[in-house]
């Protein structure tokens, strides 16, 4: 009104957080999954988990529910990616953010919705020469918001044989 702000009339300004909810494309991209399909994937595949996989699956989901901020290192041949993809499906089926990254592009194709860690976290490419080894993500950026909202970050480190 008259080019003046609400505050100048002694009124409170509305609190708008739509910048992140509506225009944060990185945030929206992480929530674009078909939850009906993912729920079906979870329902069909959880019963297939073997005892060890189920133990890890439950442990990680419980740590997410209790918000205990745990770090897990999974190293078992034959079944890790199956388990990881099921965890991703479970979290995304509940409209939560699960970030999946890998050290290489090839490894990123093994996990659903996977990206390279360099691209997701804006890790400097010239690590050997760079004076600052910090990721290029500012606190106020869209990606920082996505990271804060994420329930889990999975980093696939494929082993190289030979
Ligand atoms: N509980 C399960 N029920 C049905 N199929 C499974 C189960 N666990 C693993 N698989 C299948 O076994 C194969 C190997 O599993 P996966 O790719 O997860 O192994 P990995 O440990 O990630 O890989 P690698 O064998 O290279 O270490 C895949 O085809 C996967 O679908």
TrEMBL record:
<dbReference type="GO" id="GO:0000723">
    <property type="term" value="P:telomere maintenance"/>
</dbReference>
<keyword id="KW-0067">ATP-binding</keyword>
<keyword id="KW-0347">Helicase</keyword>
<keyword id="KW-0378">Hydrolase</keyword>
<dbReference type="GO" id="GO:0043139">
    <property type="term" value="F:5'-3' DNA helicase activity"/>
</dbReference>
<dbReference type="GO" id="GO:0006281">
    <property type="term" value="P:DNA repair"/>
</dbReference>
<keyword id="KW-0234">DNA repair</keyword>
<dbReference type="GO" id="GO:0016787">
    <property type="term" value="F:hydrolase activity"/>
</dbReference>
<dbReference type="GO" id="GO:0006310">
    <property type="term" value="P:DNA recombination"/>
</dbReference>
<dbReference type="InterPro" id="IPR010285">
    <property type="entry name" value="DNA_helicase_pif1-like_DEAD"/>
</dbReference>
<keyword id="KW-0233">DNA recombination</keyword>
<dbReference type="InterPro" id="IPR027417">
    <property type="entry name" value="P-loop_NTPase"/>
</dbReference>
<dbReference type="Pfam" id="PF05970">
    <property type="entry name" value="PIF1"/>
</dbReference>
<protein>
    <recommendedName>
        <fullName>ATP-dependent DNA helicase</fullName>
        <ecNumber>5.6.2.3</ecNumber>
    </recommendedName>
</protein>
<dbReference type="GO" id="GO:0005524">
    <property type="term" value="F:ATP binding"/>
</dbReference>
<feature type="domain" description="DNA helicase Pif1-like DEAD-box helicase">
    <location>
        <begin position="48"/>
        <end position="156"/>
    </location>
</feature>
<keyword id="KW-0547">Nucleotide-binding</keyword>
<comment type="similarity">
    <text>Belongs to the helicase family.</text>
</comment>
<keyword id="KW-0227">DNA damage</keyword>
């Amino acid at each position: 009104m008259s080019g003046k702000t609400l505050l100048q009339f002694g009124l409170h300004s509305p609190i708008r957080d739509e910048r992140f909810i509506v225009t944060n494309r990185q945030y929206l991209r992480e929530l674009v999954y078909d939850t009906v399909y993912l729920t079906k994937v979870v329902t069909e595949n959880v019963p297939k988990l073997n005892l060890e996989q189920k133990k890890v699956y439950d442990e990680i989901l419980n740590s997410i529910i209790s918000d205990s901020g745990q770090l897990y290192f999974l190293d078992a041949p034959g079944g890790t990616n199956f388990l990881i993809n099921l965890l991703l499906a479970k979290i995304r089926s509940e409209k939560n953010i699960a970030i999946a990254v890998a050290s290489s592009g090839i490894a990123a194709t093994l996990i659903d919705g996977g990206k390279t860690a360099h691209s997701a976290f804006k890790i400097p490419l010239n690590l050997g020469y760079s004076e600052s080894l910090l990721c290029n993500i500012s606190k106020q950026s869209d990606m920082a918001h996505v990271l804060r909202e994420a329930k889990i970050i999975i980093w696939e480190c494929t082993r190289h044989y030979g």
